[in-house]
Amino acid sequence: MHVAIAGNIGAGKTTLTKLLAKHYKWEPQFEDVLENPYLEDFYNKMERWSFNLQVYFLNSRFRQILEIRESGKNIIQDRTIYEDAFIFAPNLHAMGLMSNRDFKNYSSLFDLMESVTTGPDLLIYLRSSIPNLVAQIHSRGRDYENTISIDYLSRLNERYEAWIATYNKGNLLIIDVDNINFVDNPEDLGEIINKIDAQINGLF
């Protein structure tokens, strides 16, 4: 089984991935942030490095999808290939931070990858307000994230909501994370697990 967690920067994807992997004894697949050689450069000069960054993420996540399929294991994935293609890359293009030529090339590459892959059995979307995202980003203290603007996060949030409204790749569970604390409150985590159990039971 393939479960994936989607959500904006700072929504809590990685943390929830770890907690659910531990609870269900699923194998976690994390976003390739620490190993990404473009991330810091991108946040310092977005226009120069946007295409490189997005192609790196696309390649990394496509490889993950192939590994998930071949492994035959129950896997939970931190962020999906769809978020790169439907949210981050189009947003950079719309902001004038990725050229028409690069975006066309990127989109063509994604279309080819999507034609040979399938969506996760269950997608969990972590819905969050901008103030909550900002608080989470500041609390984790990654230097390169200090330059992320509220405008940038707002644009991403709008695209996330538009994507989720038309999502049709499989089962979808939406969790509003503004008023819950699944890290420190076992009851909140338990509530999420109950909702996931109901979705999983419906899959079989």
From TrEMBL:
<feature type="domain" description="Deoxynucleoside kinase">
    <location>
        <begin position="4"/>
        <end position="199"/>
    </location>
</feature>
<dbReference type="InterPro" id="IPR031314">
    <property type="entry name" value="DNK_dom"/>
</dbReference>
<dbReference type="Pfam" id="PF01712">
    <property type="entry name" value="dNK"/>
</dbReference>
<dbReference type="GO" id="GO:0016301">
    <property type="term" value="F:kinase activity"/>
</dbReference>
<keyword id="KW-0808">Transferase</keyword>
<protein>
    <submittedName>
        <fullName>Deoxynucleoside kinase</fullName>
        <ecNumber>2.7.1.-</ecNumber>
    </submittedName>
</protein>
<dbReference type="InterPro" id="IPR002624">
    <property type="entry name" value="DCK/DGK"/>
</dbReference>
<dbReference type="InterPro" id="IPR027417">
    <property type="entry name" value="P-loop_NTPase"/>
</dbReference>
<dbReference type="InterPro" id="IPR050566">
    <property type="entry name" value="Deoxyribonucleoside_kinase"/>
</dbReference>
<keyword id="KW-0418">Kinase</keyword>
